[in-house]
């Protein structure tokens, strides 16, 4: 019966999309182009270097090296091996879905168990600093100081989630023979890195080519989800389904001192962060705190678009999706609490301090994060086309050799 209901559900969604596209072809095309522009201008060129670097570091054993060095920190704090530090750092630097990609690769190489991989993926999928400071703070709110508040609350809440999720799967883990904890040893870390490199007999050119291909394949999948959800959000809005859902949310908002007008943008943000954040920034409210609370929650929740990308990456492994989804609810909740607690010291008092310190008329330099964001928008399409061309060239060569 359960499988039959799944069949009906999947079939119903497919039919809905089919008839919606027929009903609104122009609007769907416009939304698809908007999603495509977002992907090839910013997402692809900003994530590709991190993905390729991650593949190379895994292939050359550097992750093994980091694993032994960070074991004394990662095991007591998050109850995962030291190799998980690589996913945590890369996830914070480059944003989602890098954490899921690295967790899946570590699981494939058996550097983490299934339970450890589920713990790891629950707190390594963050928004990147580039997105928080460049897109949201500068691009949507035109308020650079807001970025510090959002970033501290986002990454702070994510660390708390990692500590809480360390207890995930402890009952199942008791049935598994635990590995002996490795003490800090620089010499042993280097030996492990050297052994790992020797176990990989491929020449450097082949390793680099495979790293490029694997990274681009993942990013093409990410692009497909971005375009799909861009179209889906537009169709739901045109068919008044988003408004219908927000009608159930809006009566609850006044209880938390939030204006009803934020209901529709909030629902949009649950589907796609960028769209929701932009809509929230356009609503007039009594206090910026009200907007910051909702932005913090949807950043922690990741949005269904990001969650679909993560689910697609995890589907190739035995890593289950539900711990990640539960962690997203925790992340959003903790981020909201931190936003309320830190709004005054990190935003209001900071504004007063700077306004008293900086003379009127002083021209402030544009932060480096925003400069990078605008640079990506300018050269991103060219980098994307060149990278896709290189991937096709590498793939043709591999086929010819076979």
How would you sum up this structure, described in words?
With 402 residues, the chain is mostly helical. It has one domain. It contains 18 helices and no strands. The longest helix is centred in the last third of the chain and has 36 residues, at 322-357. The radius of gyration is 22 Å and the shape is globular. The chain crosses the membrane at residues 7-24, 44-70, 120-142, 292-314, 321-343, 372-396. This is Sporulation integral membrane protein YlbJ. Keywords: Membrane, Transmembrane, Transmembrane helix.
Summarize the helices and strands and which ones pair or pack.
Layout: H1 2-23, H2 25-59, H3 62-78, H4 84-94, H5 98-108, H6 114-122, H7 129-140, H8 144-164, H9 170-173, H10 186-198, H11 204-238, H12 241-249, H13 263-271, H14 273-281, H15 288-301, H16 303-314, H17 322-357, H18 368-401
Helix pairs in contact: 2-5, 2-11, 2-18, 3-10, 4-5, 5-6, 6-17, 7-8, 7-18, 8-15, 8-17, 11-16, 11-18, 12-13, 13-14, 14-15, 15-17
InterPro entries: Gate_dom, Spore_IM_YlbJ
Protein name: Sporulation integral membrane protein YlbJ
Keywords: Membrane, Transmembrane, Transmembrane helix
